[in-house]
Design goal:
The chain is an alpha/beta fold and 307 residues long. The chain folds into three domains: 3-84, Orthogonal Bundle (Arc Repressor Mutant, subunit A), CATH 1.10.10.10; 92-160 and 268-306, Periplasmic binding protein-like II (D-Maltodextrin-Binding Protein, domain 2); 163-267, Periplasmic binding protein-like II (D-Maltodextrin-Binding Protein, domain 2, 3-Layer(aba) Sandwich), CATH 3.40.190. It contains twelve helices and twelve strands. It has helices spanning 3-15, 18-25, 29-43, 59-85, 100-105, 107-117, 130-138, 184-189, 200-212, 225-233, 247-251, 281-306, and strands spanning 48-50, 55-57, 92-97, 122-127, 144-149, 156-170, 181-182, 191-195, 217-222, 238-242, 256-260, 266-274. Strand 8, helix 9 and strand 9 form a beta-alpha-beta unit. The longest helix has 27 residues, at 59-85.
Amino acid sequence: MEIRQLRAFVAIAETKTFTAGARRVNVTQAAISMQIRQLEEEVGLPLFTRTPRRAILTEAGERLLERARKILREHDAALEELAELAGAEYGRLRIGSSSSSFATEDLPEILQELKKKFPQASISVFSGTSEVLTEKLLNGEIDVAFVSLPIENPNIQTELLYSDEIVAIASPLHPFAKRRVISAAELANEPLILGEKGGNTRRMIDEFFMQVGVKPNVIMELSRQTAINRMVEKNMGLGIAGLKSVAKEVAKGRLVTLFIEGSEMNWELGLAQLRGSYSSPIANEFKELCKRVFVEKEKELVAFERE
């Protein structure tokens, strides 16, 4: 049974004639007659008794009528719900974030703007490492995620939002505070406070130390970069962070940065989605808001550095 056939059947049943039914569904009388013949052939029973003036429902037609009405109601309701998802109020968005600083500083502003356009939307946020969020994307548990790049999975597509050079950070009280550069060996010998394993940034740092043949002295692993920065401020060890991300702490004299000799590490934040998946209107709006926010962040940083 096709929806158009059921719609034609109900139209004839309610208007009592093929001519009026055809006008209701906006087809010719010949077309509606063919649809009913096809429907009768499929069910194997006549649905109408044709008379010169009226089309009278048979017993089979009477039984089908209520079911046909129910099917059409459900069909129309489904289309209305899907239309709402494409509209300016409704939608669902499940977001993952591997960056605690982004979730704290930038995401609230983005979600506030998103809610203005989609006031009835269902929005949820999950945190985790890039590895964990990639699994959630693959399992259909979230729609989009902020992850450290690269994501080496052919089923995940990513878009770069932000890039930052990786440097060592130290307290202004540290003996190395007056220096501009630190070697990998010197850095590895210092007490290090790093991010937790499982994230791309930590993996990149571990791979760097492995490549240069030194074993880092990691004394603490924390999930949030802000916590690492505070520990380093207290001179409890050296840390590793993005140069841009600590610019304000450096300007206030709370931290100093040291370039790591031989390092070409860059922290890159990107938006990840399941490759080939449907991107809803609310997801598209969210991505555009994110791009605008990060463009503004770059502008603010340039202005800050000029002051």
